[in-house]
Amino acid sequence: MGCAGFTCSKHSLCALNILYVMVSLLMIGIAAWGKWFGLVSSFQVVGGVIGVGVFLFFVALAGLIGAMKHHQVLLFFYMIILFMVFIVQFSVSSACLAINREQQDHLLEVGWNNSQSTQRDVEKSLNCCGFKQVDPNSTCDAACFPNHSCLPCADKIQEHAGKVLHFVGGIGLFFSFTEILGVWLTYRYRNQKDPRANPSAFL
After folding, report:
1. C-alpha distance from residue 39 to each of 27, 36, 54, 124, 125 (Å)
2. Whole-prediction pTM
3. Which residues, at least 6 apart from 108, have a Cβ–Cβ distance to it below 8 Å?
4. Alpha carbon distance 11, 67 (integer Å)
5. 134 with 152: CB under 8 angstroms?
6. For the chain, which has fewer Cβ within 10 Å, the N-terminal or C-terminal residue?
7. Of 146, 144, 148, 141, residue with least CA distance to 124
């Protein structure tokens, strides 16, 4: 049977969902590892990444079960959820790639002011203090602070932020196209007959 047939669609959909399961477990594992070893102290960041990983895991599991059993209802809801995820992810990825320097500065400053734990993580990892200016009367976890040789963190963050946004946007855009591929495969697979099933049972 050619690749346009039932078996090929089933295997392709299963392979795609196995990939999503692996990605979700990787996200959960990396977030938990970062929290365990103290690389990230912000519970909101860790919780957010783990939450996205768990959501992706259950969506992929639903798609995998639906593909293996050719379950029409499960495949329908999987297709709808995957399409909504595609719209959100494509929009966010495009925004990451299109954001300009001024917007980037504003978002970084808002994020900096909203989380004390993120400030400590950044100051410690980049060896800097404050966002745009160093306050000698404040507390700072950077190694340079006791020597009064620290520089503001804004410039150091900017060195990495642009590359990170483009990297995240590119990866997100890539996965968004795999999601629309999954929607197309699911739609196609739902409307194919299982050659092993009773033809009169197909709706």
Report:
1. 15, 8, 21, 10, 9
2. 0.70
3. 131, 154, 157, 158, 161
4. 8
5. yes
6. C
7. 141
